[in-house]
Write a structure and sequence with these properties.
This protein has 263 residues and is of the alpha+beta class. It has 2 domains: 119 residues, MutM-like, N-terminal (N-terminal domain of MutM-like DNA repair proteins, Alpha-Beta Barrel); 121 residues, Helicase, Ruva Protein, domain 3, CATH 1.10.8.50. The protein contains 6 helices and 11 strands. The strands form 3 sheets. Strands 2-9-5-4-3 form a 5-stranded mixed β-sheet, with helices on one face. Strands 1-7-8-6 form a 4-stranded antiparallel β-sheet, with helices on one face. It is elongated and about 60 Å long.
Length: 263
């Protein structure tokens, strides 16, 4: 599933292509793919924002489209609305003939139409953005002290920090030298401070690599150009100590870590 860096890269590529254009028609693969899509017809795209792993297409009149890419989705612009690939699940045609499309081979991505007044409730369960002033060490400490979960699933539930997913949670925990199996509330203040810095640093580095990857033709997958230390490296030597990287299942996802370095 695309994480914050990849979703932000998608949004960054969209911004110069859609700002100021008017939507004249739309369509979708099935009724549940793009709820309320018809309400976007006739409206002008004002800007593209991101909240966690969601892309927000701001339209005139105080409304927006919320797009979640799920596992394999991509939101992009094609030069001719009539030339849609078979994997396009929803589309919004512009007055110049181009179209913004949700291209998603697994058809899991979703689009929904909302009024600005709904935004606070829609994202009430999301924590602060990792690059904003609200994501402080004190915030992370407070959230962790209340959680009995292992720290890796805790980081991925989006309430501590928005947009952090499987790849970069594993990488941040490795950089902070924290065992992903440790109960969040039992981790020391010093380690939480290291984890806070690691989350911000890892995501900034991953965002840079995602922006570079998405500037090239074609699509990309999450972490494509990111030099991972543990993720996806089961059985390979740890870059710090040489021990084999391990993989375990946590909350239905794979967790990669070094049992010698992460305690």
């Amino acid at each position: 599933m695309p994480e914050l860096p990849e979703v932000e890269a998608v949004a960054a590529r969209l911004r110069p292509l859609v700002q100021g254009v008017r939507i004249v028609s739309c369509g979708q693969f099935r009724p549940t793919t793009a709820k309320g899509a018809d309400s976007a017809i006739g409206r002008v795209v004002e800007r593209i924002d991101r909240r966690g792993k969601h892309i927000l297409v701001r339209l005139d009149g105080g409304v927006f489209l919320r797009v979640h890419l799920k596992m394999t989705g991509n939101l992009t612009v094609i030069p001719d609305a009539r030339l849609r690939a078979s994997t396009v699940r929803a589309w919004f045609e512009f007055e110049d003939g181009r179209a913004m499309v949700l291209d998603d081979p697994r058809a899991l991505g979703r689009v929904s139409f909302h009024h600005d007044g709904e935004e606070a409730e829609l994202f009430s369960e999301l924590g602060p953005e990792p690059f904003c002033a609200e994501f402080t060490f004190e915030h992370l400490l407070r959230r962790m002290r209340l959680s009995r979960k292992p720290v890796k699933p805790f980081l991925m539930d989006q309430r501590a920090v928005a947009g952090l997913g499987n790849i970069y949670a594993a990488e941040a925990l490795f950089e902070a030298r924290i065992d992903p199996r440790r109960e969040a509330r039992r981790i020391s203040c010093g380690r939480i401070s290291r984890l806070h810095g690691a989350i911000v640093g890892i995501l900034r580095s991953a965002l840079d690599s995602a922006l570079r990857a998405y500037s090239e033709p074609g699509g990309f997958t999450e972490g494509e150009n990111f030099p991972s230390a543990v993720y996806g490296r089961e059985g390979e030597p740890c870059l710090a100590c040489g021990r084999a990287v391990k993989r375990i299942a946590q909350a239905g996802r794979s967790t990669y870590f070094c049992s010698a370095c992460q305690r």
